[in-house]
Amino acid sequence: MIQNYLKIAFRNLIKFKAYSLINILGLATGTTACLLILLYVQDELSFDLHHKNVDRIYRVYADAMLGNNKLNFAVSSAPMGAALVQDYPEVENYVRLQPSQNMLIRYEDKVFTENRFLWADSTLFDVFTIPVIEGDPKTALTQPHYLVLTESSAKKYFGEEDPIEKNLIFENGQLYKVTAVVEDCKPNSHFHYDMIASMTTLEHSRSTYWISNNFYTYVLFKEGYPAGEFEKKLPDVVKKYVGPQMAQAMGVSFEKLEELGNKYDLHIQALKDIHLKSALDYELEPNGNIEYVYIFSIIAVFILLIACINFMNLATARSSMRSKEVGIRKVLGSNIYQLVRQFLTESVLLSSISVILAVTFVELLLPLFNQVSGKELETAYFTDWNSIPMLLLIAVIVGIIAGSYPAFYLSHFQPIEVLKGKSGSGKKSSWLRSGLVVFQFSISIILFVGTIVVYNQLNFVREKRLGFDKEHVLVIERSWGLESKAESFRNELLNNPNIISASNSGSMPGEIYGQTVFQPEDKPAESKFPLSTSVSGYGFDKTLGIELSEGRYFSKEFPSDTSAIIINETAVKLMNLTDPVGKRLLLLGPTPEESIPFTIIGVVKDFHFESLHQSIRPLTIFFRSTENAYTCVRLKPGDIAKTVSFIESKWEEFVPDKPFIYYFLDESFDQLYRTEQRTGEIFTAFSVLAIFIACLGLFGLAAFTAERRSKEIGIRKVLGATTPTIVYLLSKDFTRWVLLANIIAWPVAYYITTSWLEQFAYRISPNVTMFIIAGLLALLIAISTVSYQAIKVAVSNPVDALRNE
Description:
Number of strands: 25
Strand content: 15-25%
Structural class: alpha+beta
Helix content: 40-55%
Largest sheet: 14 strands, mixed
Radius of gyration: 34 Å
């Protein structure tokens, strides 16, 4: 019986080539989109799952409110992990991580700058699953200046030599001994590394200061312990350790601080939730977003549904062409179940061919998709034995979904009626086809609106006034290598007429800024405020185009500026300062006696020193002209390459043994929104696919509609109907469907886009124009698709249609 079904299915496939091609291409396109998104979603959901104890590993983080300034940070204090292990037997172990950037490392004549560098406790291998290729994981990080390399790093420095016990020279001349080689870091990890050095090397890792947060602390709970129970014990940790030190530093009891609305809470966060569900300050790396996983999963389902709807629509539209076949089969003894199996066999065959075609498309498109999504996705048809059964399952499921309604619809035709020549399709099927087309275009319009909103938000981000000028600013990294020669280097640069200004700075806009607690000298003891901090040398305001609202910037004419401070307008409002210039802020130390006073000499207008995801926070700038991380240089527009070459030559004069590494500030700032840019590109791609699939179905429906109404059109033409009249006649129903789709899609699209925009502190508001553009675009595409068939019929000879029986 199955053999007979397949034979008939192949005959129909060959006989109705256009119908088959439209269905196969639609299903293949939909399946391709679905498979690409499934690869993306699977990768996002797999982060950190390679760790054996993933369900037992949690990160400690803080949620605080100090001086009306809300703080959520992923870092914790140096003594946190050890204290938790000591005080709570359910905590089996802990490890701390701290990243470093721009580490200059040498071996013989090889010099490299390492950006994926981690400091870690010796317990790293006990908590995380990091396969060791060579060396002893128990001793690899136990002593100062011990170093672990990944396999790729080992080959980069040592080639085929055995790296164990060999030394690498760090920038300060210190030797670090290689003690182990581990496998390369998994790409689906929330932190990455090429080198790991022993935490005991860092003196501040032995700090007992609980209110200084610089480490990422992970704890490993004992097998079977419900981690949720530990949350209830963390307030005791705050009271025992954090509270007393905070009271000592702030000069007021912790209870009094809480009464004034301040708080300091500790929480734990599951390792497997960090990548998709964490958006804390000071994350190790930019994380993903669970909302994108949900959105893309829904898009995958909808695109596949659109393809299945095409199949349903075309099958029911062709019902009149197969009605006699059904009638004859029923007269010869076929029952409903046999007919259903026959039609489902046909649809599964079509979907199987589509899946094979989709696999080919995926292989061709995957490099491009990886480039757009920033992923390293791979297919595993032969290495993962679940892949082939999964593809077969997809083919069967898609075939059954697409063919279910047509199969039951066609199998219920009455043989007497259809053999008399009456069509099997009626109003019910016509209404269903209309509803399905409306659904298809509703989804397409939602995707169009999403694409337009994402594009406009990113354009808004690029064009929004940031409070500083990021254009034509070259930033030299690792400027601490200049040491005491930093000011001389700056003066040499200023001699070039193509350089407008230059300055030194400890941080640049777009980076993560540290925070320190201050107290206005004339305010009561409980008036403590955490403020973001930075340092800069002379001319930083001019180099970045930062404007002052009061006072002045640092100047060589005032030697006392070494104890001066500049704040922004948000800091003035937060601390409720009137006439702030000349007043003093106390930089709080471990005790009130150790606090250091700084005089406010200027107030800068608010500028976005962080991304637009974050509201402008209160900022302080201290003076430091040497040993800063960066030298920033404002260039005149023109021959930029020549000016960069000049700067490089001067750098080599001052520090010939240090690499010249630079970037342009505008490009760096744009990278802050790379995730959103990728989202927009993916949205656009799948919007185009969705509308393409919908139009395929519309094209097929228009063709069958035109064919079924050919005699009517022939008679109308004989009676004087013009071509525009015929086109309007065949297009009006489709136009009505797309207009109805707009009414349904707009509210849904508004809800989705406004939810997405909430992640930005500064954002656009979706307006009517965006929705109208999306609707008109969908309508234009639909009309263009239908018009081709309509015009084709309208210009045909009516005699041919009237002769046709």
